[in-house]
UniProtKB/TrEMBL annotation:
This protein's encoding gene: yhbU
Keyword set, alphabetical order: Hydrolase, Protease
A Pfam family per the record: Peptidase_U32
Enzyme Commission numbers on file: 3.4.-.-
Protein name: Protease YhbU
PANTHER family attached to this UniProt entry: PEPTIDASE U32 FAMILY (PTHR30217), TRNA HYDROXYLATION PROTEIN P (PTHR30217:SF6)
Taxon lineage: Bacteria, Bacillati, Bacillota, Clostridia, Peptostreptococcales
Length: 309
């Protein structure tokens, strides 16, 4: 049997339980601090501990993202946070930069470490670089094609796990600074009043809005359409991806439930009968019925497919 993992974002404790009960093998969360996920609801440490116990009872896993780009004075609090996560038996940490990786290796040397999407892993040399530093999993950039993934798999260590996003919002850019809000309000970068939302529009595509969200964590640019690769599960798996991840920061728990169930069916069909796997249009229809944004295959294929409603 193929060792595949279906992973999902969970914005709160209820979302964690929904994702795991719907068929996800793991969830990733932002935690109470040090996560970029300030747009979503937070987990308290008590809720996180409850979620981990719930997951482990089902033989499933919980990962915590530490996507802060730390300043020097952040490291003391980070060490305390890492020790707490270690005590409650988090299954792994998702990091974005090497300084945090050094702290994790020093404070919690036995913790499993993943390099997340913000680490910008575009090639096998970067993947091998992090592997040599003790990283067990890399999340490859969303801009890569399937042929690029194949090259990474061929040239990376066999025991390095490769994770890729298969569904959900596509983050095009992230900044730890609130550039738009600061400019619009003429306020100092260190001051923060409330969450701000904007849209980016290209002149020749007036109907395609790219959402821009700003809060105390910074600025996040999203693509105008959401990723959907359910029709190409075999191609993804054959390219070397073993962790297929659903992005759902700004989605409801109902959305998470239905998306996970659809992908669970598609993945299980492939696991059970890889030579005769057939795409079921009902899976796509289920996804289109719950998503208010158009769906696209993004950068994976040589010719992009848009699933307009």
């Amino acid at each position: 049997m193929l060792n595949l993992e279906l992973s999902s974002f969970a914005k709160d404790l209820a979302g964690l339980k929904v994702a795991l009960e719907s068929g996800a093998d793991s969830v990733y969360i932002g935690g109470q601090t040090f996560g970029m996920d300030t747009i979503s609801n937070k987990f308290s440490m008590e809720e996180l501990e409850e979620g981990i116990k719930f997951a482990h009872e089902k033989n499933k896993r919980v990962y915590v993202t530490i996507s802060l780009l730390p300043h020097n004075n952040d490291f003391v609090k980070l060490e305390e946070y890492l020790l707490k996560l270690n005590d409650i038996k988090v299954d792994g940490l998702i990091l974005c930069e090497p300084g945090t990786l050094e702290i994790v290796r020093k404070v919690t040397p036995n913790m499993k470490v993943h390099m997340g999407i913000q680490a910008n892993i575009y090639n096998y040399e970067t993947a091998r670089f992090y592997y040599d530093l003790g990283v067990k999993r890399v999340v490859i950039a969303k801009e890569l094609a399937l042929k690029d993934t194949i090259e990474i798999r061929k040239n990376a260590p066999l025991d390095l796990e490769i994770e890729a996003f298969v569904h959900g919002s596509m983050v095009m850019s992230y900044s730890g600074r609130r550039l738009l809000s600061n400019y619009m309000t003429s306020k100092d970068a260190g001051k923060y009043d409330e969450e701000k939302n904007y849209n980016l529009v290209e002149e020749k595509r007036p109907g395609q809005y790219c959402p821009i969200y700003e809060d105390e964590g910074g600025t996040i640019f999203y693509a105008a359409k959401d990723l959907c690769m359910i029709e190409f599960i075999p191609e993804l798996i054959k390219s070397g991806v073993t962790i297929l991840t659903v992005e759902g920061h700004l989605k409801s728990n109902e959305y998470t439930e239905k998306v996970i169930k659809a992908y669970r069916k598609a993945i299980d069909e492939f696991i059970n009968n890889p030579d005769n796997w057939k795409f079921d249009k009902n899976w796509l229809e289920e996804l289109q019925n719950i998503d208010h944004r158009d769906l696209t295959t993004g950068f994976y294929l040589e010719e992009n497919i848009d699933y307009t409603k």
